[in-house]
Amino acid sequence: MSFAPFELIDGNKKSGLLLTADHASRALPEAYGSLGLEAAQFDRHIAYDIGVAELTRKLAARLDAPAVLGGFSRLLIDPNRGEDDPTLIMQLSDGAVIPGNYPMDAQERETRLNAFYRPYHDQVSALVYDVREESGRAPFIVSIHSYTPVWRGKARPWHCGLLWDKDDRALRPLLEMLRAEHLLITGDNEPYDGALRNDAMFKHATSKGYPHILIEVRQDLIADNAGTDQWAARLAPMLTALNQLPEMQEVQFFGSRTDPV
C-alpha cells in the first residue's frame, strides 16, 4: 500500500481562505517501522501536534475551506523547517533519542525530502495557486499547530498563541478578537517566535506577500472532541471576519525579521 504524504480537504477556493496543518499526523511508512522508538513515544508531542488534525478538519468544515494536512510524523522529517535547517530530521527530541535518524547519510536525507517533505509542500503550493486563481485575490493562509502545556517543568499560561513575522495584517485583528474573551490568555509570538527562516509560513506566505497567521492552541485544550469542537466554534467566525477585511486580500511584502541587514 502506498503512503500518502498529505491529506487534501476540498473546499470553496473562491473565498480566498485556506488551511494548513504541518504536524497533523504521527504516521510512518511501513518501511521505517517505528524509527527504533517505543510505541508510547508516538502519543507524545515529539511525533505530532496533538489535536491539530481534528481541529483543522472541523475548521475546514465550518468554513467550507480547503486544507492540506501533513501525512507523516515530524520524527521522520519536519515540514515546518527549511531544507537547510539542522533540526529538519531530529536525532534527539525532548529527551527521546531517535535511533532510526542516526546516523543520517545524505542519500537517506534526500530520500525523505523527495518522498515526504517536498510532495507535502508541492501540494500546499498547488492549493495556494488554485485559491489565488479561483478567488482572484491574495490567498489568506492559516496554519494550525499545537503546543505542550508544560515545557521543561514550566507551565505555559497561554491558552493559544499567534505566531507572525513582520506582516501583522492578520495578527492585529485576531489578537484583539481573542483577547476580547477575558478568560482567554492569548500569546503574541508565544510560546514560540514566528520568524523562522524558510519555515512553512515563510515558504508559502511571507516570501510571496500573502496574508497569513500561525495559530498555536495548547494541547490539553484540544485533546478530545469537546475541545476541538469548542475551538473550531471559536475560531471559525473570527477567521471568516478576518478574511473579509480589504487589506487581507492584497499582496503586500513586509519582509522577514530573519532577512540579513
**The first-level CATH class name:** Alpha Beta
N-to-C terminal Cα separation, in Å?
A: 49 Å
Radius of gyration: 18 Å
CATH topology: Aminopeptidase
Question: For the record, what is the CATH homologous superfamily label?
Answer: Zn-dependent exopeptidases
What pattern of helices and strands is seen along the backbone? EEHEEEHEEEEHEHEH
Tally of separate domains:
1
Percentage beta strand: 15-25%
Structural class: alpha/beta
Shape: globular
Biggest sheet details:
7 strands, mixed
Uncertain segments: none
Estimated helix fraction:
25-40%
Strand arrangement within the widest β-sheet reads 1-3-2-6-11-9-10
- Look at the structure and give the mean pLDDT: 96
> If classified by CATH, what would the architecture be?
3-Layer(aba) Sandwich
Give the count of helical stretches.
5
